[in-house]
Amino acid sequence: MTATALGFSFLTDVSLGNHNAGEGGSQLADLKKYGNKPYISGQAYRRAIKEALREQVADPETAECSSRYPCGEIGDCVICDLFGYMNTDEFDAGDDETPAPKRTAPLRVSKLLGQYDRPQTTDMVLQQDESGDADNRIGYREITENVYHGGVMLDVDAVGRRESDEVDTSREHDEIYQRTYDDEIDDAERAHRVTALVHSVRAASNLAGQARHMADFMPDLVVGATLPEYNQRLQNALNLDTEAEELVVPQFEQVVADITAVGGDVWVGGTHNPDVIGNWDTAMTAAEDAGAMVCDSVADCFDQVADAATTADSDG
Question: Would you give the end-to-end CA distance of the chain in angstroms?
């Protein structure tokens, strides 16, 4: 198999709302902020992808587990397989009949960080007392709009495979360390899970506040890649000049060149939304010049990456 990893780095223009509240207080849901810029935690974004994945699977029983109550059966459960788990109370590492006590997730996600200095305001939320006693409750929610930068990486080789470590300490002066991988699904199921996860990243939208502050989280500019070796270089592809509100094109070109230099393939898709970056034409021309394939749409970019990764997986 040539593609052992895949990933996406993206910018998405998110409309006015509070999509991942901070600590707040009894009457205030504040924004999570880094400096004066809002962010959405990796945990919240990961949860949104997980909820989207539940909609992708044909059998709901294969996606019932939660991080608190995992089954650990990665051959049967896509949640435990892709998102990992840790539950040493449930599983006995010394018992061959039960799952390993923990699993490192093949999926890694970043926080979504707002890129620009944009106005912030406070929205009043009124919970009306329908009994007629006029015991109405008032709360406040900080809201803003921004362009968020985030990314995901998937260790394709680890999907559906159980990693085991063995250490032989019987020798007096040294030890023998061996790491093995055991398949718990076949290549067809691995391809199916990878495709479902890519589509879940594309569709992820179940973040906080969607009942009152519905927003589109599908990327407006996305760079996707398949790689013959796992690395996270792609996450530096979309750095911005925040004063000019433009993509830093030389860095973008260099990151694409770094990925293609190790045998990776790169795809780019965008909406040409002027609120995201102001140098769309320059960025797309630079992508082609650097060896990336420019797709007709953002959705097509996700599909191209999924197809490339799963074709390589099926071919072995």
Answer: 4
Category of 118 on φ-ψ map: left (φ > 0), alpha (ψ -120 to 50) or beta: beta
- How far CA 100 is from CA of 30, 85, 165, 213, 293, in Å, comes to 39, 10, 11, 41, 41
CA atoms 112, 116, 122, 124: torsion sign: negative
CB 302 within 8 A of CB 224: yes
Task: Kindly give the residue spans of alpha helices, DSSP state H, lying in 153-248.
Answer: 187-203
Separation of alpha carbons 256 and 224, rounded Å: 10
Could you give the angle at the alpha carbon of 78 between the alpha carbons of 306 and 149, nearest 5°? 50
- String of DSSP letters for 222-281: EEEEEESS---GGGGTT-EETTTTEE-HHHHHHHHHHHHHTT-EEEEEE---TTT-S-HH
Distance CA 27, CA 160 (A): 45
Q: Spell out the per-residue pLDDT of the chain, length 316, in tens.
A: 468 999 999 999 999 999 988 776 668 889 999 999 999 999 999 999 999 999 988 888 889 888 788 888 999 999 999 999 986 566 555 555 667 778 899 999 999 999 999 999 998 887 776 666 666 678 888 999 999 999 999 999 999 999 877 777 777 666 666 778 899 999 999 999 999 999 999 999 988 777 888 899 999 999 999 999 999 999 999 999 999 999 999 999 999 999 999 999 999 999 999 999 999 999 999 999 999 999 999 999 999 999 999 985 444 4
Q: Tokens at residue 138, please? A: 């008032």
Q: Please state, in angstroms and rounded to a whole number, the distance separating the CA atoms of residues 264 and 256.
A: 9
